[in-house]
Design goal:
disordered N terminus, 6 helices, mainly alpha, single chain, about 0% strand, about 180 residues
Length: about 180
């Protein structure tokens, strides 16, 4: 009777399976941590440094916001349902590939390589009536997407977002394509 309560060797993960799930979990936790640091840095630059983000900057944050809980869930699932963890990592990779493209697009706008969207790169409408002037004062114009608010070592924040997103996409893809052997 007591023997049924004891774990048998078949109930435990094999050493290979344990290393596999630990590797996926560690990778997922790294993705969550780097995503949190990236968006935390952006928020600090905005709220402490006073650098207002443009609409494209805000759009680039979405992948980081989504990746944090998804990567944490993938880390939790790594030892329980490895296939689900790999699917989550694949979705994270797709999100960061798209975010890399958005960062490159935004950086190209800042460098003048191509035009940006009219909503943040074009001319603001000129107030022609006192009411329109009051409205424009109540709702100030958006931050422009075609001027880098900050460059570090010659690279804008959009450029850094593209680089970090590419790194995170590779990391997530690495985890998504890992195959467990010996099971």
């Amino acid at each position: 009777m007591g023997s049924s309560l004891r774990a048998t060797s078949s109930d435990r993960l094999s050493p290979t399976a344990e290393r596999f799930s630990a590797g996926i979990a560690t990778l997922s936790l790294g993705i969550a941590a780097l995503s949190a640091l990236s968006v935390g840095g952006a928020l600090a630059i905005e709220h402490i440094g006073g650098v207002r983000p443009c609409p494209l900057c805000l759009d680039q944050r979405i992948a980081y916001y989504a990746a944090i809980p998804a990567a944490l869930l993938a880390a939790w699932l790594a030892g329980r349902v490895p296939a689900a963890a790999r699917v989550l990592l694949a979705l994270i990779a797709i999100g960061f590939v798209a975010n890399t493209a958005l960062g490159v697009y935004h950086a190209g706008i800042e460098w003048g390589w191509w035009p940006g969207p009219d909503s943040c790169s074009g001319m603001a409408p000129i107030a022609t009536t006192p009411e329109a002037l009051r409205e424009s004062l109540r709702n100030p114009a958006v931050v422009r997407c075609d001027a880098a608010a900050l460059r570090v070592l010659g690279i804008s924040l959009a450029g850094y977002s593209a680089l970090v997103s590419a790194l995170l996409a590779v990391a997530a893809l690495t985890g998504a394509t890992q195959r467990q052997s010996g099971r």
